[in-house]
Design a protein that fits this description.
The structure is a single chain. The protein has 249 residues and is an alpha/beta fold. It has six helices and 17 strands. The longest helix has 10 residues.
């Protein structure tokens, strides 16, 4: 399946040094060996959910990712709906927590002046609001991993969080004139499928794979690896690329 690499640059005075971050959402236990060279050129890899695929009989690639990639580069991993709904969730999450990846299950950590948080997917669709309130008060450049764009829309937008990384929508599966056909949680003709939104406060990945059981095939919508560059700009707050940002609806 075709995969593109898209780069974005944000500037802030609240990081210790420039950072190059890979955003690999929705891998769904797919192949990743072709990405290792690119990962090695990055300072860290962000996984905003669905490294595992709940429809697969096994998730060997997800487990191998957790064994292999953190040996090359730091990995920060938040919980998506596939992790939450996986039949063998407890066993898998124990392995993920015991790996060298940093599992952020409604938790946050510091990385060179970036405060990285993971807002976990929930069965009730309402996230951990206490974690969100704590996170937006923490020092540093606040970078949130939040699998669901609709969760950002309903619960994160307007908070004191610099940038939120999302996935889940798979680019809307089929793209027509820059708009997607369908996304879970948004239904038909979703508005939050890829790219920058909300004045550059939310960045949505098209996803790394289509998953084991896609509801509809992809059309005009390649899989995507995002490279996020955080650069120092003394005396200015973090900003994205407003010219590329869509309005949040």
């Amino acid at each position: 399946m075709k995969r593109i690499t898209t780069e974005y640059t944000f500037r802030t005075d609240r990081i210790d040094r420039p950072l190059r971050l890979a955003v690999a959402s929705d891998l769904h236990s797919g192949s990743f060996d072709d990405l290792l060279e690119e990962f090695s050129r990055c300072d860290a890899v962000m996984i905003p959910g669905d490294l595992v695929d709940r429809h697969r009989k096994n998730n060997e690639n997800a487990l191998r990712f957790l064994e292999t990639v953190p040996e090359i580069v730091p990995v920060f991993y938040s919980v998506g709906n596939h992790e939450r709904k996986y039949r063998y969730r407890e066993e898998y999450m124990r392995k993920a927590a015991g790996s060298k990846a940093t599992l952020l299950d409604n938790e946050s950590t510091d990385f060179h002046g970036v405060r990285i948080g993971g807002l976990s997917s929930t069965r009730t669709k309402v996230p951990d609001m206490e974690f969100l309130e704590r996170f937006e008060q923490e020092d540093g450049y606040r970078l949130l991993l939040c699998h669901h764009p609709e969760m950002y829309r309903d619960y994160v937008a307007g908070r004191n969080i610099d940038l939120t990384l999302c996935g889940h929508a798979h680019g809307g599966q089929m793209q027509f004139f820059g708009r997607g056909l369908y996304a879970p949680g948004q239904g038909l003709f979703p508005k939050l499928t890829h790219g920058l939104h909300d004045g550059g406060k939310m960045l949505i990945s098209r996803g790394m794979t289509n998953g084991a059981k896609p509801r509809v095939p992809r059309f005009n919508n390649p899989c995507e690896l995002i490279i996020l560059n955080l650069e120092r700009e003394d005396g200015q707050d973090g900003t994205g690329r407003p010219e590329a940002a869509d309005g949040l609806v």
